[in-house]
Amino acid sequence: MARLEIRKISGVRTQDLNGQPLVIGRSSANPLQLRHSNVSRKHCVIEQTDGRILLRDLESHVGTTVNGERVTERELKPGDRIMVGPYELIVVDEDHVPAAAGAPAVDIAALRNEINQAKSETESSRQLVSSLEQSLEKLRGELDAAEHHAAGRQQELTGVREELQTVLSEWQTEQESHDQTRAGIRLQQEMIESLESQVANVNEELESLRSSQQRDGDQSQQLVQSLQQTIQQSQLEIEQLQQTRAELLNRLREHEHSQQHALQHASQTQQAWRSLRGQMSALDGLAAQLNTVQQRVEKAETQWVEADRVLSESPEHAPQALVARQRQTRISEQLESLHRERDETVGQLCSQMQELLAKAGRQEPETANGSNGAAPTEPTRGGLFSRFRIRKAIPNS
Fold first, then answer.
1. In principle, which of 85, 217, 261, 287 could form an S-S bond with 38, CB 3.0–4.6 Å?
2. For residue 244, what are the contacts with CB-CB under 8 A and spacing of at least 6?
3. CB atoms inside a 10 Å sphere around CB 206
4. How far is CA 284 from CA 26, 107, 279, 352, 388, in A?
5. Contact at 8 Å (CB) between 287 and 350?
């Protein structure tokens, strides 16, 4: 019975061809699911009719190749190599393996021994890949949480900026009211000075009337009484104006106190915003460095896949096979170094994020107390860290 061997960096697995159409693609509804971005949802199909094995491409976006040649439909034979994205599918007939023209017959038992040996050699690689994938998933979860908290901090910074604008607007309004109050006080002072001048004039007239009292008699006495009443009324008006002046002075002092408080709060809010903005810039730098390391990891994994392809296509002791093994060893060491660098970068990112969250937590009570009783602004989603993302990598080697 014919079967397929599916090869990738993570290992080798098999799929029997039992006579039913075998649809291959990225979708989980396919009998054979190959998860990769270069594999279409329904990439190709393998059918068996009258003892023949036919391959048809289902209009995939990267195409299907057989023995290095891109095809739309091809009859498959044992030993044919099918490339579907990064996956290599080899047609194997357990009952018969045809030899090439002029070449000796292939020993099935030896071939099976080589396959078992290759499986045992890749077992350690699969374990390493599994461990690296778990570490990568954990790092992705931490980065997602960091991005979420950073987005919340950025939204709170936006709210603080809006609150600062509101405080400045209120201060300008209070300044205008303060100017109006001062103008009113100056007007009241002018009125008081005018009344005092009138009182002085009345006093002068009173003295003049007293000097002529003996001569004027009863008329002078009546005039004096009238002037005294006028003086009393003027004094009452002066007292009322003085009370009004005292009230206006109290209001002016209250406005000055409120203005000083608003300026202090605005200065504290602006300093906190500048500090948080500097730390957010540092976090953006670490995120960019982490993306750079991730891109280098992906490049090294692509080189590892190419070396594995050369190794699988070459004889075991051929020079190109030895070169490919040495290259895989160097790439593995490079990947380990890159993973260590990525872990250090993530550690720095998390440490600075914790410092940022701690500082933001200390600033929240001060902002709530300095907002004149206003309710804290509820942050909205989105902000600086919406740019903070990590590209999805292919499985590590």
1. 85
2. 188
3. 16
4. 34, 59, 9, 11, 7
5. no
3-state secondary structure 32-64: EECCCCCCCCCCEEEEEECCEEEEEECCCCCCE
Calculate helix-pair angle for 218-313, 319-369, nearest 10 degrees. Answer: 170
Place of tokens 């969250």: 357
What pTM, to 2 d.p., does this model score?
Answer: 0.28
The position carrying tokens 């303060």 is 178
Residue 375 to residue 268: CA distance in whole angstroms: 18
CA distance linking residue 396 with residue 298, whole number of Å? 8
Place 45 in a pLDDT band, splitting at 50, 70 and 90.
Answer: very high
What's the pLDDT tens digit per position in 359-397? Answer: 766 655 554 454 444 444 443 333 333 333 333 333 443
**Cα(92)–Cα(3) distance, integer angstroms:** 5
Residues 121-142 pLDDT 10s: 677 667 777 777 787 888 878 8
The 10 Å CB-count burial string (b at 16+, else e) for 57-78 is beebeebbbbeeeebeebebeb
Cα–Cα dist 378/357, whole Å: 17
Radius of gyration (C-alpha) of the chain in whole angstroms: 45
Chain position carrying tokens 């009138």? 198
